[in-house]
Write a structure and sequence with these properties.
The chain has 148 residues and is mainly α. Helices cover 82% and strands 0% of the residues. The protein is elongated. It comes from [Mycobacterium] vasticus.
Length: 148
């Protein structure tokens, strides 16, 4: 089960890197993308990412529950899952409310996306925590699988 957990962790890591650190920042630089269009795309993409992350987290938790690893991979998985929970329960709803307000009154929206909310910075900061946690989880789960 360790190999499956490792694979799932690296799939999760790849998705976070691709969406949060490549797609999201580049989206607003594309020609012709308006604030409303960018927010609409972002909402759909991050909603889908969140659902997939929750499924992947559940699979990883199942893998470590059925084949318990050592304390380091378990701690790394715990950090990643906790970050995801905080993002899903506390941060994404705030971001959704903000984007709702911007989409409802585009003329009152901040100039471009330069005026990001505090919630955006918290979300990005948590992504910066989640990435090394997933990397550590994947590497240490793999090491445990190789040893076992």
């Amino acid at each position: 089960m360790g190999a499956i957990g490792t694979a799932v962790v690296f799939i999760w890591l790849g998705m976070v890197l691709a969406i949060s650190f490549i797609e999201a920042p580049l989206k607003f630089r594309a020609p012709g993308i308006t604030l409303q269009l960018g927010l609409g795309i972002g909402r759909l993409v991050f909603q889908a990412l969140n659902v997939v992350e929750i499924v992947l987290a559940a699979l990883v938790l199942y893998a470590v529950a059925t084949d318990p690893p050592g304390s380091v991979p378990l701690a790394a998985v715990g950090v990643a899952v906790t970050v995801l929970a905080v993002q899903s329960v506390f941060i994404r709803p705030r971001l959704r409310r903000r984007s709702d307000a911007v989409l409802a009154a585009p003329s009152q929206a901040p100039d471009g996306m330069r005026n990001r909310s505090f919630a955006h910075y918290v979300y990005a900061g948590l992504e910066v925590v989640k990435v090394p946690a997933l990397l550590a989880a994947g590497i240490t789960l793999q090491a445990g699988s190789a040893l076992g």
